[in-house]
Specification:
Helix 2 crosses helix 4 (80-93) and helix 8 crosses helix 15 (404-418). This protein has helices at residues 39-44, 48-59, 62-65, 80-93, 109-118, 154-166, 206-213, 218-226, 242-253, 283-289, 319-328, 334-339, 353-361, 372-380, 404-418, 422-433, and strands at residues 18-21, 35-38, 69-74, 98-106, 123-127, 139-146, 169-172, 184-188, 197-202, 233-236, 261-262, 296-300, 307-311, 316-317, 344-347, 365-368, 386-389, 393-396. 54% of the residues are buried. It is globular and about 70 Å long. The strands form four sheets. The chain has a seven-stranded mixed sheet with strand order 2-6-5-3-4-9-8, with helices on both faces. A five-stranded mixed sheet has the order 11-10-12-13-14, with helices on both faces. It has 451 residues and is of the alpha/beta class. The protein folds into two domains: 18-204, Alpha-D-Glucose-1,6-Bisphosphate, subunit A, domain 3 (Alpha-D-Glucose-1,6-Bisphosphate, Chain A, domain 3), CATH 3.40.120.10; 208-438, Alpha-D-Glucose-1,6-Bisphosphate, Chain A, domain 3 (3-Layer(aba) Sandwich). Strand 17 (386-389) and strand 18 form a beta hairpin.
């Protein structure tokens, strides 16, 4: 049984909901970024995925879950489609009324946060292992974001884990098959359900692109990237989810030449590469920046929430400096001219470069534990506008996730306003505030950066 191709509605008899006995696994405690395991764990352990999905759904009070909207998407890594099929069948069986899913099951983590907030969904299920390798021998991850669009808070994660430790059965609708390739609405009749279950396949980029249009001055950015005195940029999506966003927003809308964007086709193994925007791994970008033909470079991780910024000749901007420079130039971004700046924040391991800007501008500075949800708490309380962490995450209060493309557009807004090179902007910053040195132990640093 499936949806009628013409009307998108169910024909024939209602789909059956079944309850399947299962046994718990002891290792399903969600970490900072949800549950991450090797693909073979999800594939080889019976009902491993089903157990965790049921635990997520059961953590939502039945009254809240009934008829609710949930957003689903992932970074396109291996096992993404299989997992979505299971999530759709289980969400329907557990009383969810509507799923909003990215086209082909792909949606960046920042876009999922945006869509949750836009449609007032009860939450979202995000399928990513972030910058970890993909493919059949790589990693897979699943995390739950709540109604604010951000990662589940500690109490919710603990509840999910508690349920996973004692789970005895899960509900599923095995006959329900959804078409992820066709945009639009599909409805399904389920037995003992008064209202049909709805799946909406949406353009993965559009809602998020619209949000960015309301934050940045797209006319000024278009002039910078395609006007008479344009700069040359290089963007590396590392075969992750950011590719379609880069092409649609930077190339089609802001006028970057198509060949500015590399590795923009999402692949389930990220082309065999480690999808981590770090000098060690984003070698396609760092190599192409070295000869000085490009003024600005950026790379994104698998799910599009992390970023790396480079200047001409591969000048590397540390994540700690990046957030500090954005803070110092924050009114180059129209959004902050309208909202004002409520506060800055950084994670505890991140350098104190941001603190110096906060002190000079008399804006409150918050130091948080590692984990984006802690920034989200401050944003929800109206206390925070801009934040960042040393692990290549930067973001604002427009959503409740770190946001790689937002960070790139923030930097391009600064370049458009100041008309200086990345290196000059950073060196001016060091002259004004001093330079904070930062190192992360246990990581390989390319020899070219050891100076």
């Amino acid at each position: 049984l499936g949806p009628d191709p013409d009307s998108g509605t169910m024909e024939n008899s209602p789909l059956q909901v079944v309850t399947v006995p299962t046994a718990p696994y002891p290792d399903q405690r969600p970490g900072t970024d949800g549950l991450r395991k090797s693909v073979c764990v999800f594939q080889s352990r019976r009902n491993y995925l089903h157990n965790f999905v049921q635990s997520i759904l059961s953590s939502i009070d039945l009254r809240d879950r009934q008829g609710s909207t949930v957003v689903v998407g992932g970074d396109g890594r291996f096992f993404n489609q299989t997992a979505i099929e299971v999530i759709v069948q289980m969400a329907a069986a557990n009383g969810v009324g509507r799923l909003i899913i990215g086209h082909h099951g792909i949606m960046s983590t920042p876009a999922i946060s945006c869509v949750i907030r836009k449609y007032k969904a009860i939450g979202g299920i995000v399928l990513t292992a972030s910058h970890n390798p993909g493919g059949p021998h790589g990693d897979f991850g699943i995390k739950f974001n709540t109604a604010n669009g951000g990662p589940a808070k500690e109490a919710v994660s603990s509840k999910i884990f508690l349920i996973s430790r004692t789970i005895e059965e899960f509900a599923i609708c095995p006959g329900l098959k959804v078409d992820l390739t066709t945009l639009g609405r599909q409805t399904f009749d389920l037995e003992n359900k008064f209202k049909p279950f709805t799946v909406e396949i949406v353009d993965s980029v559009e809602s998020y692109a619209n949000l960015l249009r309301n934050i940045f001055d797209f006319a000024a950015l278009k002039e910078l990237l395609s006007g008479d005195h344009r700069i040359k940029i290089r963007l590396d999506a590392m075969h992750g989810v950011a590719g379609p966003y880069v092409r649609k927003i930077l190339c089609e809308e802001l006028g970057c030449p198509a060949n500015s964007a590399i590795n923009c086709v999402p692949m389930d193994d990220f082309g065999g590469q480690h999808p981590d925007p770090h000098p060690t791994y984003a070698t396609d970008l760092t190599d192409s920046m070295r000869d000085g033909q490009y003024d600005f470079g950026a790379a994104f991780d698998a799910d599009g929430d992390r970023n790396m910024i480079l200047g001409k000749h591969g000048f590397f901007v540390t994540p700690s400096d990046s957030v500090a420079v954005i803070a110092n130039n924050i009114f180059c971004i129209p959004y902050f001219q309208h909202t004002g700046v409520r506060g800055f924040a950084r994670s505890m391991p991140t350098s104190a470069a941001l603190d110096r800007v906060a002190k000079a501008t008399k804006i409150e500075l918050y130091e948080t534990p590692t984990g984006w949800k802690f920034f989200g708490n401050l944003m929800d309380a109206g206390m925070l506008s801009l934040c960042g962490e040393e692990s290549f995450g930067t973001g604002g209060d427009h959503i409740r996730e770190k946001d790689g493309l937002w960070a790139v557009l923030a930097w391009l807004s600064i370049l458009a306003s100041r008309r200086q090179s990345v290196e000059d902007i950073v060196k001016d910053h060091w002259l004004k505030y001093g330079r904070n040195y930062f190192t992360r132990s246990g990581e390989k640093t390319p020899e070219s950066l050891l100076i």
